[in-house]
Design brief:
Blueprint (H helix, E strand, L loop, with lengths): L4 E7 L12 H15 L3 E6 L8 E3 L4 E5 L2 H4 L10 H26 L3 E7 L4 H13 L6 E7 L10 H7 L1 E4 L2 H8 L6 E2 L14 H10 L5 E5 L8 H13 L5 E5 L5 H11 L4 E5 L5 H9 L5 E5 L4 H10 L2 E4 L8 H9 L3 E3 L14 E2 L5 H12 L2 H16 L3 H19 L2
Parallel strand pairs: 1-2, 1-5, 2-4, 5-6, 6-7, 7-8, 9-10, 9-13, 10-12, 11-12, 13-14, 14-15
Antiparallel strand pairs: 3-4
Length: 421
């Protein structure tokens, strides 16, 4: 039990469905729900899920999925953020009623307390509405409501005074605590966690197959949305710099469909780098390996939705994974790379766990020459590479959800004490 909470509710736009899995939020809430369930907390994950999947579904031990706003999603089939405004309003109006009357009320009747964690700006109004409903029903003391910030997106849309009255504010890094402070909002830091199963690593056979596909050439991997915050131009400039000084790494890109991607590949061509688009069935591991083996381009645009097993094998098979964002609230990818046995390249904002040339490479700016210099040092020292991989794995073991939940329990004890005074 988590600080006296036998039940938990997570309110999130993203979730485990492919339809609802767009970024790191889906990974966070899915693994958090699993960890809470495994810890004996009956957990309900509310998210805007696949309109064609069951509305309510048993997921893993102790975890129930509630796919919300499916009637709206049926008209917006692209992904969870398609038709976002209507979904935000529906989530605000309808989800709190179900949470208050079907989960908190039942738990309260059993003498049990419910932990509610609302994620990101899309769920802020739902947290405010839930607080009001519970007060009206005389059950506010039966629930602890947290609102968690993973990013600064949508901060300008949040009614901060109302949210602070309704919920205790948490966030995932010291960087995000600073960002919230700029809005006059104090917050408790509870870092993200990773699933214990990640520490088992990808299958050695999968790693070996991908390394064979890469044919021994230096391989860099960058996965993420095409957004200037992700420092895509730094990655392109670093590849060009390395090529000009005798190294010839191949950069494997798995981006999104954002328009900024065109600017990224245009910059690559301006530097004289060859580019190639590879379409592959991401669910077919061998198809992905064969596609990579077929390309000798400097920049490979891999168009495939990659299952975790394939993605983590790529992390381990690559010489470095470029998670070099200029503005990164936490950096969950860096921890996942460490757990997979890879070497992450981080920025210097929210990745509190990253230590330069100890468990990761860390770029302080967006200059491609800085990144190239660090990658050259890595390429020249195999023993350094191995030390970083081992230290990274040791770091990942400290961020499994079981450890993070122990910290969360202590923060909850504090929250409950101060909110009842």
């Amino acid at each position: 039990m988590l600080a006296g909470h036998k039940y938990a509710v997570i309110l999130s736009f993203e979730g485990p469905d492919r339809y609802a899995s767009v970024g790191g939020l889906a990974t966070r809430v899915t693994s958090l729900a699993k960890a809470l369930g495994a810890a004996g907390v009956r957990t309900h994950l509310f998210f805007v899920g696949d309109p064609n999947a069951p509305a309510v579904e048993n997921f893993t031990e102790g975890v129930t999925l509630h796919r919300w706003s499916q009637w709206i999603s049926a008209y917006h089939p692209r992904n969870v953020y398609d038709g976002q405004e209507g979904k935000v309003n529906d989530f605000r109006v309808s989800a709190p009623r179900t949470v208050a009357d079907e989960i908190v009320a039942r738990a309260d009747a059993q003498g049990e307390r419910t932990l509610v964690i609302a994620e990101e700006w899309q769920a802020a109004e739902a947290a405010i509405a839930l607080d009001a409903l519970l007060r009206a029903r005389g059950r506010r003391d039966a629930a602890t409501i947290l609102w968690n910030a993973n990013n600064t997106y949508g901060f300008e849309r949040i009614r901060w005074d109302a949210l602070r009255r309704a919920a205790s504010i948490t966030t995932v890094s010291k960087y995000m605590k600073f960002e919230l402070g700029r809005w006059g909002v104090p917050a408790l830091v509870v870092p993200n966690g990773i699933d214990d199963a990640l520490l088992d690593g990808p299958r050695p056979a999968s790693i070996a197959r991908l390394r064979t596909a890469l044919r021994g050439k230096p391989a860099l991997l960058k996965v993420g949305r095409f957004d200037p915050d992700k420092n895509w131009m730094q990655a392109i400039e670093a590849v060009a710099e390395l090529r000009a000084t005798g190294l010839a790494p191949q950069l494997i890109v798995r981006g999104g469909r954002e328009p900024y991607g065109e600017a990224v590949f245009r910059r690559a061509r301006e530097y004289g780098l060859s580019t190639e688009r590879l379409d592959a069935d991401g669910d077919d591991f061998e198809a992905v390996a064969q596609a990579l083996a077929s390309s000798s381009a400097d920049i490979v645009d891999l168009r495939a939705f990659l299952p975790d097993e394939t993605l983590y094998a790529l992390y381990a098979a690559s010489d470095a994974v470029l998670a070099n964002s200029g503005k990164e609230p936490f950096g969950l990818v860096g921890l996942e790379v460490m757990a997979a046995g890879g070497i992450p390249v981080c920025g210097s904002t929210g990745e509190d766990y990253a230590e330069p040339f100890v468990n990761a490479l860390v770029c302080d700016g967006d200059d491609g020459r800085e990144l190239a210099e660090y990658l050259r040092a890595l390429a020249a020292d195999e023993q350094l590479c191995e030390r970083i991989r081992q230290a990274g794995y040791a770091t990942a073991t400290r961020y499994v959800w079981a450890a993070v939940l122990q910290l969360l329990a202590l923060k909850l004890e504090y929250v409950m004490r101060v909110r009842t005074q």
